[in-house]
Design a protein that fits this description.
Blueprint: E1 9-14, H1 34-46, E2 51-54, E3 62-63, E4 66-67, H2 78-86, E5 93-99, H3 105-119, E6 123-128, H4 133-136, H5 147-165, H6 171-179, E7 190-194, E8 199-203, E9 215-218, H7 223-232, E10 235-238, H8 243-255, E11 268-273, E12 275-277, H9 281-295, H10 298-309, H11 347-361, H12 365-372, E13 378-380, H13 382-394, E14 400-403, H14 413-425, H15 438-442, H16 447-456
Helix pairs in contact: 2-3, 3-5, 5-7, 10-12, 13-14
Length: 457
């Protein structure tokens, strides 16, 4: 008997700080004006996507003592944007990245519970941590936490927020909500939490939301991040979109669920994915090469190398050969806010490998960055891209993808118009929304139903 086809989950990422957006393209629009967010969200909803996702940075990036000016600045506040989008969409999930290192559980829980009410149960929280003192300077508490403490705080932060969400529950309180009388039961909203990071008590003033509590996303790829997702998240973002790496990540994280009393269906794995479409595969491949060169300008290439060399390389020609000096491997880093976690663990080894590649292919600095950096995940005709996405999901590489177009806000439109109908024809993607909440879209149980099952067992 053949295995039933998995249903594909699709989401759309409105880019922020990134190396994907082609800012120079005439079709590129504002990342601040609400019309851009509204267009993007409406396209995703028209295509019956599960949700829209907003990333967030808490400080402008800096490199070499100057503001890093190669990506967007001035992104409006996440909650403000999502609340506004709730008014111009009816079904699309609304996911925001909110930091657990510098915020407080009561405030974040109240904001997400409010968004969930305003949207009719469509909110989701991407729980992240911050590892740098540079960002911490924006906050009274300041500083940064070692990695193990960051995840310890994040886990307790989420547990505390869930206690606040769950402080309104039960048949009597549900009846009170239906009647519009929220405080008839003096116990409604009462909470007490005493832990390593938080010691709070009082009454939570936002009633139980339509989906019980927001959907929880997690983005960490470290050992601590994978465990955090397996224990507490509803979905985890992944940077592994290739067949082999994706399947290994999928298997590893899914196999961690059993120790927490969870099944494979309780956690979705959703890698970020870029795409380039053409009428033919050949046309798409040619366009992908052009897009990649637009994404990596000469200035971008030099900034990328400076991060590895840890030196000012502004005197070098990006169309010329690689620098003949070695990286500075000292403790001070040219990019503040990134010194605690190095993308390249061994800069000297990385540079040796790059020099060999550049010599073998006669690559300039810019050529090297273009050819060793991130590639588009899906490139081809609509039929090829639809088939590849479905093959990956059915092979348990992922449960779906979060699409990141290189043009904002209109870059999602070709996928919605040309690829989604093909997935619908294959019977692996919805033609209509069947539920009203984000939990419905993702096939996740309501927290009250899960609680009831555990009590019964």
């Amino acid at each position: 008997m053949s295995k039933p086809l998995k249903q594909i989950h699709l989401a759309a990422h409105f880019p922020g700080v990134n190396n994907t957006t082609v800012w120079s393209d005439p079709q590129a629009g504002s990342h601040i004006e609400f019309s851009s967010f509204a267009h993007f969200a409406r396209t995703a909803e028209r295509a019956k996507f599960d949700f829209l996702f907003l990333a967030e940075g808490l400080r402008l990036r800096e490199q070499g003592g100057q503001i890093y000016d190669l990506d967007v600045v001035g992104r409006p506040d996440t909650f403000t944007v999502l609340a506004a989008l709730a008014a111009v969409t009816e079904h699309l999930g609304l996911t925001g990245t909110i930091n657990s290192t510098f915020n407080e559980p009561y405030e974040v829980a109240r904001q997400f519970a409010s968004l969930d009410h305003l949207s009719g149960g469509r909110s989701a929280w991407n729980v992240v941590t911050s590892w740098d003192a540079f960002t911490g300077e924006n906050f009274r508490r300041g500083g940064f936490l070692p990695q193990e403490e960051r995840y310890s705080r994040a886990k307790e932060f989420l547990a505390t927020a869930n206690e606040l969400f769950d402080s309104w529950h039960g048949d009597e309180i549900a009846a009170d909500q239906a009647a519009g009388v929220f405080l008839r039961d003096a116990k409604a909203g009462s909470f007490v939490h005493a832990g390593q990071h938080f010691d709070i008590h009082g009454q939570f003033n936002v009633p139980r939301s339509p989906q019980g509590r927001p959907v929880v996303f997690q983005a960490g790829d470290s050992e601590e991040g994978r465990e955090f997702a397996a224990s507490s998240a509803d979905a985890i973002f992944s940077r592994y979109a290739s067949l082999e790496e994706g399947r290994a990540f999928y298997t590893d994280v899914k196999n961690r669920l059993a120790k927490y009393g969870r099944s494979h269906r309780d956690l979705l794995i959703l890698p970020a994915a870029t795409f380039v479409l053409g009428d033919t595969d050949t046309e798409a491949e040619e366009l992908a090469r052009e897009v990649r060169r637009q994404q990596v300008s000469g200035a971008t290439a030099l900034k990328h190398l400076e991060f590895v060399w840890n030196r000012d390389l502004s005197a070098y020609d990006p169309e010329g050969p690689l620098p003949d000096i070695d990286p500075d491997v000292g403790d001070e880093h040219i990019s503040q806010g990134r010194a605690q976690v190095r993308m390249y663990r061994d800069p000297l080894a990385t540079v040796r490998a790059w020099r060999e590649l550049a010599a073998a292919h006669d690559w300039s600095i810019r050529d090297l960055v273009i050819n060793t950096g991130n590639r588009q995940t899906f490139v081809g005709s609509p039929a090829t891209v639809a088939r590849t996405i479905n093959d990956f999901v059915q092979a348990d590489v992922s449960d779906g993808f979060i699409l990141v177009p290189h043009i904002t806000p209109g870059g999602l439109d070709p996928f919605a118009d040309k690829v989604v109908p093909l997935l619908q024809e294959q019977g692996v993607f919805r033609t209509e929304y069947e539920g009203t909440t984000l939990r419905d879209h993702l096939g996740l149980a309501h927290p009250d139903d899960v609680r009831g099952e555990r009590v019964a067992s």
